[in-house]
Amino acid sequence: MIARNGQMVAALAVTQTAGYGVLYYAFSVFLQPMRVELRASITQVAGALTLAVLVSGLVAPLVGRVLDARGGRTLMTAGSLLGALALLAWSRVGSLAQLYLVLAAVGLSSAMVLYEAAFAVVVAWYDAARRARALLAVTIVAGFASSVFMPLTGLLVDRYGWRSALVALGVGYGLVAVPLHWLTLRDRTSVAPEPGYVRSALRERPFWLLAAAFLSQTGAVAVIGVLLVTYLIALGHAPLFAATVAGLLGVLSVTGRLVTTGLQARRPTALVAAAVFALQGLAAALLPLVGHTVAGAIGAVTLFGLGFGVGTLARPALLADRYDTAVYATLSGALALPITVSKAVAPLAAAAGAQVIGYPAVMAGVCAACLAAASCLVGYERAA
Q1: Which of 208, 186, 212, 220 minimizes the C-alpha distance to 331?
Q2: Main site of residence (predicted)?
Q3: Do 61 and 152 belong to one domain?
Q4: pLDDT at 67
Q5: C-alpha dihedral, 199 to 202 to 205 to 210, nearest 10°
């Protein structure tokens, strides 16, 4: 059983890396060539990715209920097949309308195969003693998705064009993810909790404290992820330096996950995550003050980056520790909807706000969101 579970985690680590690489991160590489060929603005083309993120959030509650009822094998296999076909269809789009339709399919596929679904599978098959390490293993590997697939996609686009690159990625993803999901995942065997358990959980104050915490922190992380390069350039840094420093976020997210998992063995998960979120708030507050210097910019980004992937690990751990794991995916899907909307909308609002009130005010908002998230988690721990 342990060996089989190990195979499942290894498979999920591979499919999450490939899934995030081709269904999310590759889009930024395609943005410019698509804009030129489709004769559209950057905003119009980027809106397709926003739609994909929103669709994934909207269907998350339904996907969660299916995962709890049936398990991940069939759903994730079908989702990876849909993702591969969507990438192939994407390679043939000739208008903005077609692009938006295809990216809606990518969003549906993402909800079926990425972290929310993978975490539900892990939670269903691991006890509390081994769950944290299993989740860490999946996210550590998948944390390098952007580092692997953005350069790979760029190379494919440079040599063969964006349409052929999408064909290559679609075929490759299908050949990897479909068989791994089908052969290594299993159907659901857990016993359902009493009727009304989910409704009762959704009415509890701790659940809404979790929702508020991760909605706030996810929005803050999304804003930094989208605007950091632009803001560092506005602070007077060269574009290459700004991009290099921003690239630290991916590596630091892995470091933060390792540190957080180690601390979880000694301190409550909610309090560990709260401390990390508070440090992110401090980093956002410091960036306008010290970000003009090289050392200040690197220091602030490093401090913020350590918490970049902590929410990804803390949310499933907190849900699984408090609630019946037989309904983990349902509750996770309910949380995912507002959190995903925050992820999609916050960067757009911040970008618009920066033009009116300036970047320092936006960073103050990021700081406030991180501190609010920390406060909610402290309240959650006290209510637990």
Answers
A1: 208
A2: membrane
A3: yes
A4: 93
A5: 160
Q: In this predicted model, what pLDDT tens digit does every residue of 150-187 receive, in sequence order?
A: 889 999 999 999 999 999 999 999 999 999 999 999 87
pLDDT of residue 60: 94
Asked if the structure places residue 191 within a domain, the reply is: no
Q: 118 and 225 share a domain?
A: no
Domain CATH number, residue 244: 1.20.1250.20
CA–centroid distance for 126 within its chain: 22
The reported pLDDT for the residue numbered 2 is 47
Cα gap 155→143, rounded to integer Å: 20
Q: Which residue, chain included where needed, has tokens 């033009």? A: 355
Question: Which of 152, 184, 216 lies at the terminal end of a domain, its last residue?
Answer: 184
Asked if residue 280 is part of any domain, the answer here is yes
For tokens 């925050």, the residue is 342
Where the chain has pLDDT below 50, the residues are 1-3
Which of 184, 215, 240 finishes a domain? Answer: 184
Phi first, then psi: give them for residue 362, nearest 5 degrees. Answer: -65, -40
Same domain for 149 and 35: yes
- Tokens representing residue 103 in the block: 């990216």
Total tally of structural domains belonging to the chain: 2
Residue 39, judged by CB atoms within 10 A of its CB (0-12, 13-18, 19+), counts as exposed
Domain range enclosing 370 = 197-383
48/53 Cα distance (integer angstroms) = 9
Same domain, 177 and 73: yes
pTM of the complete model: 0.84
User: Minimal CA–CA distance to 228: which of 240, 245, 215, 216?
Assistant: 245
Which pLDDT does position 74 carry in this prediction?
Answer: 95
**Contacts of 71 by beta carbon, 8 Å cutoff, 6+ apart:** 121, 124, 185, 186, 187, 188, 189
